[in-house]
Amino acid sequence: VPHHLLRKSGKLTPEEQQAVLQSSEYAFRVLYGINFGLPVPEALHDMNEKFDGSGPRALKGDQINPHARLLAVVNAFCSMVSDRAYRQGMPIGQALEILSASPAFDPAIVLALREIPAEDLRSALAGEDSPSRA
After folding, report:
1. Is residue 73 exposed (0-12), middle (13-18) or buried (19+ Cβ within 10 Å)?
2. Distances in Å between the alpha carbon of 50 and those of 3, 34, 73, 76, 122?
3. Which positions ≥6 away from 54 have C-beta within 8 Å?
4. How many Å apart are CA 71 and CA 24, to the nearest integer?
5. Is 69 buried (19+), middle (13-18) or exposed (0-12) by CB count in 10 A?
6. Structure confidence by residue, pLDDT tens digits, 72-107
7. CA 48/CA 56 separation, integer angstroms
8. pTM
9. Quick check: 44 and 24 in contact, CB under 8 A?
10. 70 vs 114: CA distance, rounded Å
């Protein structure tokens, strides 16, 4: 992803959004063939697919790598609750409500995320050890 897009203070244009979405394709090409012991390249490749089939390759539900479905939820959650140059991060509860209402994300994964105590989520976002795991 071009560095200037990562630091842009305003909303991305449709063309810029496409460039950002291509990052998973680039990562897949770079990492393909490296044995991580996990499906890392495949998960990155499918990360921008939507559970409802509205993603770039129109994969739907279980057609999407389960690791990619997990990455998609966590990536969206972190993006929503993190401050950006152009906006303040939203509260954890609001982000969870948006994820829960969206057909784009695997509902089982969103439910699992909702079951994590908010205090643990805040600690993880701050880079601290979670109170229940310390």
Report:
1. buried
2. 25, 26, 10, 12, 26
3. 104
4. 11
5. buried
6. 999 999 989 988 777 889 999 999 999 999 999 999
7. 7
8. 0.77
9. yes
10. 13
